[in-house]
Amino acid sequence: MSKGVIIALIVIVAAVVLIAAFIAKSRGANGGRNLRKRFGPEYERTVARYDGDTGAAERELTARVERHGQLHTRPLEPAERQRYETRWAAAQERFVESPREAVTEADRLLAELAASRGFPAGNEYEEQVSALSVHHPHHVNGYRRIHRAALAAAGGAADSSSATEELREALVEGRALFDELIHEDRTHRPGAPAQGAREARGHGQRHGRHGAGDRVRSHLPGTLTRNHAKGS
Hints:
The chain is mainly α. It is 70% helix and 0% strand. It has 10 helices and no strands. Helix 1 crosses helix 3, helix 5 packs parallel to helix 8 (161-182) and helix 7 packs across helix 8. Residues 184-232 are annotated as: Disordered.
């Protein structure tokens, strides 16, 4: 084989490697943008959990989509929806006298509601949250906050005004996910904020009264009607 042919082969191989690297880099960049758009705040939380390592965070998020992206949820029957709404309203009522018990019930209720909609069962908490993060990325952190608060309450965390405020904020943030899960929204796409809160208010108005949750909020410490704090 002549020297010229060898040089030509080397040039061709080098060109192929460069092209392949460029394509891979382009796909990676587009994949990152798509993940950021799809997961929104959940993307930033995952990157932070990996100390800024976007590659590791995106691999995890990609794995979540692969496991749960094709999950098909089922709508609730009207009677089921009513039972969940009644239980949530009761938990909010209970918060006034027993904040810990109220948050513990809200944690249990979200787990059961998610399972009823077709997500993994509540006894598989991590997998359930993983699936919820794919389909409800804007509000899944509210579930995390409620779950952490419920675990702290079960562990006998000391009562204080700051602890009660943390429980209140967890309940408020978790309500956003509850609203998203409880109200059927056929126009919702994964990664887009749902209209659950507005639908919840409309539910009460369509029945000629305020919703049960609305009746309760004004009685809660600090009120549950003000904007909730940022997720941790």
